[in-house]
């Protein structure tokens, strides 16, 4: 009987986690209209599940488990919404009709720094939420304030940053400094495949970047492309524009590791592989590259 109660309890808890996250993350209802569904389909089943698992003798442990549940299904998603999605909506720049490719960030290292700061902020917030306030040491509050200050500072300093490849040239705003070149000023362009390793994961992502060398000796790099249908189509538009402008264009060959990753990431039933071959100038029938290849 005890095993049955615990098994039923875990089923309720697991189901309530998925339902709670689905309600909080869903876009069909406003925040206030989510309260009743979250309470009825999330909190109450979760409490019932933990109660069956712990028993009435350990009600304090059950209440602690509920804090963990609300942290995972409610506060962390809301926290992420406030700190990630809202700043994205407030950002002072957005894609225009002239943009062949657009990236709302300026340089990759800034995004990595923001990710580290946000992770530290989430860890501090979670620790404080799960602990009794009287047991929180001062340095934890200090770290929370420090991470919040630095994260907010990086957001504000990069609010107007973006990179865009447009019909009339290239635009990049980095930490408020704007650089712009017309296609007539671009001497050479390159497409370079590489494997990206997202921060805090062991995942490998097939990616590529465009490099544009200008008459002034500067190089503009766009490295936010990865193996996905929309990204490939945007890259084909960029490639077509470069060819239309008569700019020398070089494609770097993929190495063995990149080819192996391509095989793993392929999507069946789509034109993604065909479009990607067109992008990198590879003829699958003859098994060789075409055009100017390094």
Plain-language structure description:
This protein is of the alpha+beta class and 294 residues long. The protein contains eight helices and ten strands. It has helices at 2-25, 35-54, 59-90, 108-130, 138-157, 229-244, 256-265, 272-280, and strands spanning 99-103, 162-166, 169-174, 177-182, 186-196, 205-214, 219-226, 249-251, 282-283, 288-289. The strands form three sheets. Strands 1-2-3-4 form a four-stranded antiparallel β-sheet, covered by helices on one side. Strands 7-6-5-8 form a four-stranded mixed β-sheet. Strand 2 (162-166) and strand 3 form a beta hairpin. Helix 1 (2-25) packs parallel to helix 3, helix 3 (59-90) runs antiparallel to helix 4 (108-130) and helix 6 (229-244) runs parallel beside helix 8. The longest helix has 32 residues, at 59-90. The protein is elongated, with a radius of gyration of 25 Å. It starts with a helix and ends in a 5-residue tail after the last strand.
Entry summary:
By secondary structure, the protein is of the alpha+beta class. 52% of the residues lie in helices and 20% in strands. It starts with a helix and ends in a 5-residue tail after the last strand.
């Amino acid at each position: 009987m005890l095993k049955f109660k615990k098994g039923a309890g875990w089923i309720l808890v697991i189901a309530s986690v998925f339902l709670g996250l689905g309600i909080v993350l869903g876009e069909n209802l406003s925040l206030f209209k989510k309260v009743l569904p979250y309470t009825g389909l999330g909190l109450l089943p979760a409490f019932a599940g933990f109660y069956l698992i712990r028993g009435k003798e350990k009600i304090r442990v059950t209440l602690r488990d509920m804090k963990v549940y609300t942290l995972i299904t409610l506060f962390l998603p809301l926290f992420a919404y406030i700190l990630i999605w809202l700043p994205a909506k407030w950002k002072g720049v957005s894609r225009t009709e002239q943009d062949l490719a657009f990236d709302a960030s300026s340089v990759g290292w800034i995004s990595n720094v923001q990710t580290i700061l946000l992770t530290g902020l989430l860890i501090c917030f979670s620790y404080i939420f799960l602990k009794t306030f009287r047991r929180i040491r001062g340095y934890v509050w200090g770290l929370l304030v420090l991470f919040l200050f630095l994260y907010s500072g990086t957001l504000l300093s990069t609010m107007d940053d973006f990179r865009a490849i447009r019909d009339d040239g290239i635009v990049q705003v980095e930490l408020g400094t704007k650089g712009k070149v017309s296609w007539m000023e671009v001497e050479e362009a390159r497409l370079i495949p590489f494997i990206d390793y997202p921060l805090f994961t062991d995942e490998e992502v097939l990616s590529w970047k465009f490099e544009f060398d200008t008459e002034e000796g500067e190089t503009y790099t766009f490295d936010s492309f990865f193996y996905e249908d929309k990204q490939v189509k945007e890259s084909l538009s960029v490639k077509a524009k470069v060819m239309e402008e008569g700019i020398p264009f070089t494609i770097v060959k993929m190495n063995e590791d990149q080819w192996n990753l391509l095989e793993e990431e392929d999507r069946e039933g789509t034109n993604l592989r065909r479009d990607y071959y067109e992008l990198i100038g590879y003829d699958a029938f003859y098994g060789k590259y075409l055009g100017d290849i390094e």
